[in-house]
Design a protein that fits this description.
The chain is 76% helix and 0% strand. The chain contains nine helices and no strands.
Amino acid sequence: MDAIFEATIQVLASDGLIRLNTTRVARRAGVSVGTLYQYFANKQALLFAVLERHLAVLAGAIEDACGDNPLVMVETVAEAVVMAYLRAQMAQAELSPTLYRIALELDARGLIDLTVRRSARAIEATLSSAIDGGFADPGLLAQTLAAALYGTVPAFCHRVLSPADGIEAQRQLTIMFRSYLLAHQRP
């Protein structure tokens, strides 16, 4: 299965979304088309699975960052979440525009909503345990932050960022998240 996913990403990168087909993916993966069809009914199912896997990586990165940072300061939460998400997103920056188009074409709103909620739960748990927390509604804050990540970052990931631009994007998002959290702390 991993070989099929990797082959799909390679074909997307080399041939683009329009030229991607199950025959090319199977050939690149070193499997028969019949084997590919045992796992995926068609090209759309394959693309949906690739998108699902990518979103799971993003949510997993946020969960890991939050799990690695219990009982920390709010500013640390903001930095850890932004850094984890951006690293995971930028690891496939070249494919980001294609993944975004796949999400639109396949109407993957439900999948994206599940991913945002998964990330929000992790952020909420970390905000609730933050040393200097004291938020009236950490769940709502977490939902807002997760929605901002999944809504904002793809907008500038449609082009491959230079390393300097990536660092600047991380800095700006961290400032935005810190400011938002600090503004909502109870006095």
